[in-house]
Amino acid sequence: MIKMITDSKIILSDMACMLLSNITKYQDISMKFLKMENQQVEGLSNSTKAIDQLVDVFVRGLDRVYNKEAEYHFLASVFANVTMLPQGREYFLTTASYDDVTPLSKLIVFTEHPNIIRRGGVISCLKNCCFAIEHHLDMLSPSKINVLPYILLPLCGPEEFDLDDMEGMPEDIQLLPSDKKREPDAYLRQTLLESIVLLTTTRQGRMILRQKKVYPVIRQMHLVESDEKVSIVVEQVVNMLMRDEGPEEDNIVENIRSENPDLGNDNTIEEI
């Protein structure tokens, strides 16, 4: 099946991606997939690991550039499935030896892609990776994975920010066009917000989110949010960012889980 996906001449590559997205919902299959090797594919990837090759074809195959018969959108659901496992999250958050790039950093650019399967799977993968608390600083670092702009951009609309609010914001979200559209899917907005909640787990994470002026973005979003479930998570984000820090308070993951009983690992996103 991997060869069907990575071969640029196979016309059923997208069907193979859909099948893989279905079977990797089973954790034992996801685990085997993470360990799978495949013959190196010239012109695609210098790695022999199947997961590396699929990440590369997902990126390079955009707009039918690699295979004129395939778009590879459903691989995003595969990545979402795999990151439900700690080993999958570790893979996506660790720099790959064959190209010195962290796999998640290759995916996050698609959080605003027009195809809901592609962007939805990537957003779910991103949220799942946020459960790896030990990687939060790398995820938030502008010189490393730098997930924050790609979480906030889909949550931004055309609203303008005050100069005081913009000071410290990621540059990517400071001056957005007047026709900027917010993520239209309520479930994906909720998933992005839950990612922020997870990133507030540690004191250092909360400090970074405050410095990066996440609150003004969430405040503007809250003013126009019409979905009740999304609004509830907005309020949770605000509470985490605006709360007073106790002298002994650092890692508050248990508090987050108790306040958010539905904040489990994400599932794949299916087209509706």
Automatic annotation (TrEMBL):
Residue ranges of every copy of the Protein HGH1 N-terminal domain listed in the record: 5-190
Coiled coil: none
Residues annotated as domain Protein HGH1 C-terminal: 195-249
Family: Belongs to the HGH1 family.
Name of the protein in its database record: Eukaryotic protein
